[in-house]
Design a protein that fits this description.
The protein is of the alpha+beta class and 402 residues long. The chain contains 11 helices and 15 strands. It has a 6-stranded mixed beta sheet with strand order 9-10-8-13-14-15, with helices on both faces. It has a 5-stranded antiparallel beta sheet with strand order 4-3-7-6-5. A hairpin with a 2-residue loop joins strand 9 (306-311) and strand 10. The longest helix has 35 residues, at 199-233.
Length: 402
């Protein structure tokens, strides 16, 4: 932003202006035709009629003295006063900046004092002696692009003697009439300048950077979606699969068993006398008991098996590639494990038991709903028979259990 303000200041200061002066007839003393004089802010021209020009300057001095007596300045006859103060101030400002400043006019370079002090002596008055050879061709392309499109550009360049080169962040600003202002700010010593790229290479590098950022965003989005999916399928109290997810898994396992003719069994588990625990110790204690039982069941089933919270104090276990015999053996182990491991609640041991209903899927006779109903009926019979036991209910056979 600072470079653009300075460039605009120089451009306005050097814009050609026009003025008019009166010509006086020396013999008659009458004023006549007006001369139109083109003057530059940097170097004004001589006037063809010195007498008329001197008269004009005297009249201007008298008007200035009348309006502003304290600002009276003696005028030099025969030569117009310079009005290039803004340009001079801008150039003086560029010379005093602590950063490196180069005004590029065609192939000519006009450096500021800071840049000259960096070299001893200053190497050249064109780009060939200042820009390092590996960066020169690409820099000339970038410079030409700035001139042609009247734009600004930013790049990294190295300046300084060969044994003391440092990296600079450079800003190129077009300031009109094919002139380009280059301002270079030093970077930390550990910053290495990347190779200076031409327009096509620079565009390709930007596209690769955008592609890399998009890949990162895509991975982040996938991670967020995975978290959302996990939250949607997880029971917030027990951290097991919730009812919707476990029933979806049951439907998929039934279709897999039907297609590949593999065995499938399920177990419906209910925590005995859970209402009594809530009434005696409170619902907070009941939540702790549910979490304890859920973790015990999860840690004592096979790895391929899937467990979820079916509702309330009921849990559903899916046993792919397992017959009713294998499911019954697992149910017996779970009953024994819960019975033998009481939960510690407020420094008191609470002994727990579970009832389990077991059912096996029969292809061509069952669907996932009928299979679930048979497991629920087996659980109901286990509770009717005194709880703390498992019951296997076949399709037509009598119930079996312990």
């Amino acid at each position: 932003m600072f470079a653009r303000l300075v460039a605009a200041h120089i451009s306005l200061a050097q814009k050609p202006k026009s003025c008019k002066c009166r010509r006086m007839n020396v013999e008659t003393g009458e004023e006549s035709v007006l001369y139109t004089i083109r003057r530059s802010a940097i170097r004004p021209r001589e006037v063809d009629c010195p007498q008329a020009f001197a008269y004009n300057q005297n009249m201007k001095a008298k008007r200035s003295e009348k309006d502003h007596p304290q600002r009276r300045q003696p005028s030099r006859p025969g030569r117009m006063q310079k009005s290039g103060a803004p340009a001079a101030e801008a150039m003086a400002l560029l010379q005093s900046l602590p950063v490196l400043v180069i005004l590029i006019e065609g192939k000519r370079l006009i450096p500021n004092a800071t840049l000259k002090a960096l070299y001893s002596p200053f190497p050249a008055t064109d780009l060939s002696g200042l820009i390092p050879a590996p960066q020169r061709a690409a820099f000339e392309q970038l410079l030409e692009s700035v001139r042609r499109n009247h734009l600004s550009a930013q790049t990294l360049l190295e300046f300084g003697p060969p044994d003391q080169r440092a990296c600079y962040d450079c800003l190129l600003v077009h300031i009109g009439k094919g002139r380009v202002l280059l301002l270079a700010t030093p970077l930390p010593a550990q910053t290495a300048p990347p190779p200076l790229l031409g327009p096509l290479e620079q565009l390709n590098a930007e596209l690769q950077e955008v592609k890399r950022r998009l890949e990162i965003k895509e991975k982040e989005l996938q991670a967020v979606l995975a978290q959302v999916d996990e939250v949607a399928h997880t029971d917030p109290l027990t951290y097991l699969s919730n009812r919707r997810h476990i029933l979806g898994e049951l439907q998929r396992e039934v279709m897999r068993s039907e297609r590949y003719n593999t065995p499938l069994s399920i177990s419906m588990i209910d925590l005995d006398h859970f209402k009594r625990i809530n009434d005696t110790y409170g619902h907070s204690a009941g939540d702790q008991v549910l979490r304890f039982v859920a973790m015990q069941l999860r840690d004592h089933i096979r790895l391929p098996d899937i467990i979820g919270r079916y509702g309330g104090e009921e849990f559903l276990v899916l046993l792919p590639n397992s017959t009713a015999t294998a499911a019954s053996e697992q149910a017996a182990r779970l009953c024994q494990h819960i019975r033998s491991n009481p939960v510690l609640l407020n420094d008191r041991e609470i002994h727990l038991t579970v009832s389990i209903g077991v059912a096996q899927y029969h292809a061509g006779q069952d669907d996932w709903q009928t299979l679930l109903q048979r497991a629920d009926q087996a659980l109901y019979r286990a509770k009717q028979n005194g709880r703390d036991q498992w019951i296997l209910l076949e399709t037509q056979d009598a119930p079996k259990g312990e």
